[in-house]
Design goal:
Layout lengths: L1 E2 L5 E2 L3 H12 L8 H8 L2 H28 L6 H9 L1 H34 L8 E4 L4 E3 H18 L2 H30 L2 H8 L6 E5 L6 E5 L2 H18 L16 H30 L11 H4 L9 H36 L1 H9 L17 H17 L2 H7 L1 H21 L14 H20 L1 H31 L1
Antiparallel strand pairs: 1-2, 3-4, 5-6
């Protein structure tokens, strides 16, 4: 173990880093979002294409992003890259949005998912079990467990990066083994020739499916041409977020052994594993559940993938394979998955707030490391805000609003490769973006196209996200000088 000049301890090795990448990416999304994708594109071929395109974008982003991590392997990651490419304002807007919604909202949403699936094993944890009713706020046992899990993981990570990476290694490797086991059991025990014939006989028959929840009526609209491109683009939102957080490893640059090599390799390996795993899991879904079904049915097989109860495709597959015991097993798997995912997010994000505070753009206490060499104050403040989002019940709405913003910052970050090659031509780059300039440009084009589609066809989600980012501009000018003044005087 070595200690950097900043006080961070270099304890994250390659295996640890891969577990951080893969473990942070895999949460509850892979078990849920395929239902919505199935309704958006309406065919097995296009459902798999959506996941394949998502994997292509994620790999292209990670392989391009690697140049920035090798150029500036420092605490703060994406914030640092944006600062060097565009200046403090854009970097602050990223950190502002990250803290306010992206990371804290993700922590809250994943913690609630963990608590909900715990309810399968312990029914006391239920959103109908109201512990405190204040009228405008109902505090349930699910919220209690969600907040308790956030506090527990925060306390573990307060003890040093070694503890955080240990938890990540245990839960990350366990969930990967369990997911590969799910693939094996699904293919061996659940495959149905009748279902496969239904799903794969009309592989490219794209349809948008809308269910009227009041009447139960189903409307199916054939998709082709531009409408099909729009359907694929909007369907990718769920799969992109299920594949997100691959960049979080860059936040911990000062804590990684041989960061110029390790970060790049871990992102390539981690995103590669998750991409292949996600596509294979969806193949298993399509060999067990018919894509189309009856939303009024009571059994998982009849409801099909599109109308799985509460969109829980993973649970529906487990029910078909092995009934109640398999459903409990998948609930345990999702609990492991969400707990490990949250540990990775909780560990990584405070390094961004630390870097912002060091620049005088955030609360000064966040720039301090505790006796264990981690940003303790940043971890604590993140814990408080994420817990409040659990109480608000609005975290999922906030996450929907920043879909556009997340993609926008990825676009700006990858575009920063072109800028920094011009402004820092002689800086050492141990790794250069694979396929430059084609692969980085491909990511920018694909992400930009999705952003345009969101602005036009999903204005309720895209414009509020853009406004949320924009609100950070007056905050930067109103409070930025105050933060800097406190830092200098302190």
């Amino acid at each position: 173990m070595s200690q950097t000049a900043s006080g961070f301890k270099r304890e994250i090795k390659l295996f640890d880093a891969v577990m951080l990448v893969a473990g942070s990416m895999i949460g509850s999304g892979i078990f849920i979002v395929s239902a919505d994708i199935g309704r958006s594109v309406g065919s097995a071929g296009y459902l798999l294409l959506v996941w394949a395109l998502t994997g292509l974008m994620t790999l292209a982003g990670a392989l391009s992003y690697g140049e920035l991590t090798s150029l500036m392997p420092r605490a703060g990651g994406q914030y640092v890259y944006l600062r060097e490419s565009y200046g403090p304002l854009v970097a602050f807007l990223y950190g502002w949005t990250l803290f306010l919604v992206i990371q804290s909202g993700t922590i809250a949403a994943v913690a609630v998912a963990f608590a909900r699936f715990t309810g399968v094993l312990v029914p006391w944890f239920s959103e109908t079990n109201v512990l405190l009713d204040l009228g405008i706020l109902k505090f349930t046992s699910v919220q209690l467990l969600a907040i308790a899990s956030i506090i527990l993981l925060t306390l573990i990570n307060q003890q040093g990066v070694r503890n955080g990476k240990l938890i990540q290694n245990i839960f990350g490797s366990t969930k990967l083994i369990a997911l590969f086991a799910l693939l094996g059991f699904g293919l061996l025990l659940g495959t149905s020739p009748e279902v496969m014939d239904l799903n794969f006989s009309n592989l490219w028959d794209a349809q948008a499916v809308v269910l009227d929840k009041e009447t139960g009526a189903i409307t199916r609209t054939t998709l082709s041409g531009w409408a099909l491109l729009v359907g694929i683009s909007t369907a990718m939102i769920g799969s992109l977020f299920s594949s997100d957080s691959w960049n979080n490893i860059g936040f911990s640059g000062d804590e990684i052994v041989n960061p110029k090599r390790t970060i790049v390799l871990s992102m390539a390996i981690g995103t590669g594993i998750v991409t292949i795993l996600y596509i294979l899991i969806n193949v298993v879904y399509l060999t067990i559940l018919p894509l189309q079904g009856d939303p009024a049915a009571t059994d998982a097989l009849s409801r099909g993938l599109q109308f799985a109860s509460n969109d829980r495709v993973g649970t529906a597959v487990a029910e078909v394979i092995g009934g109640a015991p398999a459903t409990i097993a998948i609930a345990i798997l999702i609990m492991i998955s969400t707990f490990g995912c949250n540990n990775g997010v909780i560990l990584s994000a405070p390094r961004v707030y630390y870097a912002m505070a060091k620049d005088g753009l955030f609360f000064p206490n966040m720039a301090k490391l505790n006796k264990n060499g981690v940003p303790g104050a940043a971890l604590a403040i993140q814990c408080v805000w994420a817990s409040l989002l659990c109480l608000s019940g609005r975290y999922s709405d906030l996450l929907d609003y920043v879909i556009f913003a997340v993609l926008l910052f990825y676009i700006l970050t990858i575009a920063g490769i072109f800028i920094l090659r011009r402004t820092m031509p002689d800086a050492p780059r141990p790794y250069k973006a694979l396929g430059y300039p084609v692969l980085p440009a491909l990511y920018i084009l694909m992400a930009s196209f999705i952003c345009v589609i969101l602005l036009i066809y999903k204005p309720n989600y895209s414009w509020p996200g853009l406004i949320l980012v924009g609100v950070g501009i007056p905050v930067f000018y109103l409070f930025g000088k105050r933060f800097r003044k406190i830092e200098v005087e302190g």
